[in-house]
UniProtKB/TrEMBL annotation:
One Gene Ontology term from the biological process aspect of the record: transmembrane transport
Protein name: Sugar ABC transporter permease
Parts of the chain that traverse the membrane: 20-43, 80-101, 122-147, 210-230, 272-295
Domain ABC transmembrane type-1: 76-291
Transport listed as a keyword: yes
Predominant place of localization: membrane
Family as reported in the entry's similarity comment: Belongs to the binding-protein-dependent transport system permease family.
PANTHER family on file: BLL4140 PROTEIN (PTHR43227)
Claim: Cell membrane is one of the keywords in the record: yes
Source organism per UniProt: Cohnella terricola
Membrane topology: Multi-pass membrane protein
Entries under Pfam families matching the protein: BPD_transp_1
Keywords: Cell membrane, Membrane, Transmembrane, Transmembrane helix, Transport
One GO cellular component term: plasma membrane
Amino acid sequence: MRGRTQWVSQVRRNYDLYLLLIPGLVFLAIFKYTPIYGLVIAFQDFNIFKGIDGSEWAGLKQFERLFSSDDFVRVMTNTLLISLYKIVILFPIPIAIAIFLNEVGKMWFKRTIQTIIYLPHFLSWVIIAGLFINIMSPSTGIVNNIIEFFGGEPINFFMDNNYFRSVVVATAGWKEAGWNAIIFIAAIAGLDPELYEASKLDGASRIQQIFTITLPGIASTIVLMFILRIGNVLEAGTEQILLLYNPTVYETGDVIGTYIYRMGLTSMEYSFSTAVGLFESVIGFFLVIGGNWMAKRVTGKGIW
């Protein structure tokens, strides 16, 4: 009762702040929690004309179909490989960018570089896909023109299974690496400048300062972002891949998100696509839990 009284008293004192929470809570309730009811479609033979209430229940039929499907192994393999490549190759890049910008002394140069590398984030994948399709075109693209200049044969990057994953990773890095660096730049800005001054008096070089002050100082931020990235490992970039791929590269480019799109909207198999989406969400949940547990075991830091 005492705790309840204190809580009511706190609400009365800060009622204006709690009122500001209401729009955000309403947004979450309507667009995040209410749609969860639609997951029951995964356990039905959903009929769009009968609706959720009128459709027949099918139990685990859709999940059995998913796990026995020939496409399941291919789609899961592509999703995990593309996500793994993005984590291994792209995750360290924003950290390196943040450290590099922190070492730049000229403010005008630093701001110019920041503006340039942030800009691609504000371009939609539609624009970026069209841009890279033109740049890497086998007939008129500048990349293939350079390859031909040095005596090579033109490469159709978007129709070759040997190159498609590399294109996906490269375009994702070009678009988001600079923007993702903002979090690490903010974390570095929060470090105590006196630590750097003291290290200079001790004779530490710039490289030594990076490894003894900067990286340990932002370790908690790195762990947090890594755990969140692991939780999204089954989200390999659906929008990006939808705009870049075609049937000739389904073998290496078809991921869970694009598979859900094709089965749900193109083939109108709503129950099956919902089951695939639910499977992806459950796996993502356990990956976040497991990633947090592993991070706490290895580094002693975690989200909770």
